[in-house]
Design goal:
Blueprint (H helix, E strand, L loop, with lengths): L2 E5 L3 H13 L3 E5 L2 H11 L3 E4 L8 H10 L8 E5 L4 H9 L4 E4 L5 H11 L3 E6 L3 H8 L7 E6 L5 H8 L3 E5 L5 H10 L8 E4 L11 E3 L4 H12 L14
Parallel strand pairs: 1-2, 1-3, 3-4, 4-5, 6-7, 6-8, 8-9, 9-10
Length: 244
């Protein structure tokens, strides 16, 4: 699960943005001032940082400078988020290594999420199940630094929620009687028709419109490989050296 650090002194904005990014599949940590932000980045090693400019103790520009001074933080993608978006501020932030600059007044939260996903090479999987336990069982094998897992557990809203999330792949829990109806809705959606869909089911006939079917007994052994293959991602576990 990719780790995002949000450095923002406004409590309401921290709450709104944290909730959104967690729903998108990020592991979110927050900091309320610049000094805390740098310290948290050192201790948590985030995969991406969303940074305000107007901060106590160290402002956003000073935080960027600290990141550039440290070899352990220099390559972390940093995205600026601020009400202060004069051209000179944008140019200065980019010159200090920021990837992108978002204005709080004009950039939508969904656009910010999708642009960060694209810029950092992250892939999103929408996991559709009939309850949270089922969704968590499908998400558990999919921990990967480039993989976001967003859970949908309300059947009546599954299709519309998945459309809004614009996933790269859908994993559908086919172990419930309503799953075939949800599959039909997804495949009838113009926005999702070409999105690859893997169904976890013991009744592949009912899920015949899925792009791939996996037996429920194969969740822990085959789901990860199937998802990573569909998304052309390397299995990071395979890169860990063996000590045997």
């Amino acid at each position: 699960m990719p780790k995002l650090l949000l450095i923002e002194d406004n409590e309401q904005i921290r709450r709104i943005y944290s909730e959104k990014f967690r729903r998108e599949g990020f592991d979110v940590t927050t900091a309320a001032d610049g000094e805390q932000g740098v310290a948290t980045a050192v201790s948590t090693h985030p995969d991406v940082v969303l940074l305000d400019i107007m901060l106590p103790k160290l402002n956003g520009f000073e935080v960027l400078q600290e990141f550039q001074r440290r070899t352990d933080l220099r390559t972390v993608p940093v995205f600026m988020l601020s009400n202060r978006a004069w051209p000179a501020d944008v140019e200065h932030a980019l010159s200090l290594g920021a990837r992108q600059f978002y204005s709080k007044g004009s950039a939508s939260l969904q656009d910010i999420v999708q642009q960060i996903r694209a810029d950092c090479g992250l892939k999103k999987v929408s996991i559709v199940s009939h309850n949270i336990m089922g969704a968590n069982s499908l998400a558990a094998p999919l921990s990967h630094p480039q993989l976001l897992c967003a859970l949908s557990t309300v059947a009546a809203e599954a299709c519309s929620a998945t459309e809004r999330g614009a996933p790269d792949l859908i994993v559908l829990d086919g172990r419930h009687p309503t799953a075939s109806a949800v599959l039909q809705q997804i495949k009838a959606s113009a926005a999702l028709r070409t999105t690859p869909l893997i169904a976890v089911t013991d009744n592949p006939v009912a899920m015949h419109r899925a792009d791939e079917c996996l037996a429920a007994s194969a969740i822990s052994t085959a789901l990860r490989a199937a998802v990573l293959c569909r998304l052309a991602l390397a299995d990071d576990l395979a890169l860990v050296p063996s000590h045997n």
